[in-house]
Specification:
Elements: H1 2-18, H2 30-41, H3 51-54, H4 66-69, E1 79-80, E2 87-93, H5 98-116, E3 121-127, H6 137-148, H7 153-163, H8 172-185, H9 190-198, H10 200-215, E4 223-226, E5 229-232, H11 237-249
Parallel strand pairs: 2-3
Antiparallel strand pairs: 1-3, 2-4, 4-5
Helix pairs in contact: 6-7, 6-8, 6-9
Length: 250
């Protein structure tokens, strides 16, 4: 009895806590109940809602315009492959990043051979130098940009990764002369390269690429956007190949 009394008190307190106690509901006679039932039976029926209204709807997000954000063009000197390839793969890189170097040496050659050269993938490189930990990354990206202006981006791209830690790395004041010399060894006109490095718009372009990449969700290197999907890290070839094949089947 004490337990029942306790719960009765709790029930009353809950009612009081949510609002005032409701007055007792008046009882209805059998005649009133029967009249109410008949009245409800005579109500007009409401037609069911169309299927498209009954299904839950999601407002689609506006598509991200990678072409505009990343300034993609058919004749981009930092791109390889058919501009109309069904898969677009964008690599965000840092030339002082050891994981980027691993991707370039271990995975990229096979991706180019099996997917880019066969017209299935368009590969585009964009810069994401990690300035907080790689002091010469912006300088190296600038050298790559300036080499691209002379249609020598890909040889410079490969040489930057191959020579990092051997010919240059981590000391911008010293690295500048070394990188200009390396570019000259590739046949790049060093006077034009030097003028390009001194042009403030070169570094401003790289800063704009960093900002654009950040807006797209890029936060480390190497990162990739493959047909709109972000892939992070220097993954083995089969990881990239599996995703690319899946996209090609869609």
């Amino acid at each position: 009895m004490q337990v029942l009394k306790h719960w009765s008190i709790v029930f009353v307190l809950l009612i009081v806590g949510c609002g005032s106690v409701a007055p007792p509901v008046p009882t209805r006679s059998a005649v009133e109940l029967r009249q109410t039932q008949l009245a409800l039976q005579g109500l007009p029926t409401v037609p069911p809602a169309p299927d498209e209204l009954r299904r839950p709807t999601v407002t689609p997000s506006p598509p991200i315009d990678l072409i505009e954000i990343l300034n993609l063009t058919a004749d981009d000197p930092r791109a390889l492959g058919d501009p109309n390839a069904p898969v677009l793969m964008i690599e965000f890189t840092d030339y002082e990043c050891p994981f980027c170097a691993r991707f370039v040496s271990e995975t990229l050659p096979r991706l180019i051979r099996e997917f880019v050269e066969t017209g299935l993938v368009r590969l585009v490189v964009r810069d994401f130098p990690l300035t907080s930990i790689h002091p010469s990354a912006v300088l190296a990206a600038s050298v790559a940009h300036c080499a691209a202006a002379q249609n020598q981006f890909w040889p410079m791209y490969e040489l930057l990764f191959q020579s990092h830690g051997v010919e240059w790395g981590g000391v911008p004041r010293r690295d500048r002369a070394a990188l200009i010399e390396l570019a000259g060894n590739l046949g790049i006109a060093t006077d034009q390269l030097t003028a390009c490095l001194d042009d403030p718009t070169t570094e401003a372009t790289i800063s704009a690429e960093i900002e654009a990449a950040t807006r797209l969700g890029i936060n480390s290197t190497p990162n990739f956007i493959i047909n709109g999907q972000i892939v992070r890290g220097a993954l083995p070839f089969e990881n990239f190949a599996g995703l690319i094949r899946q996209l090609l089947r869609q």
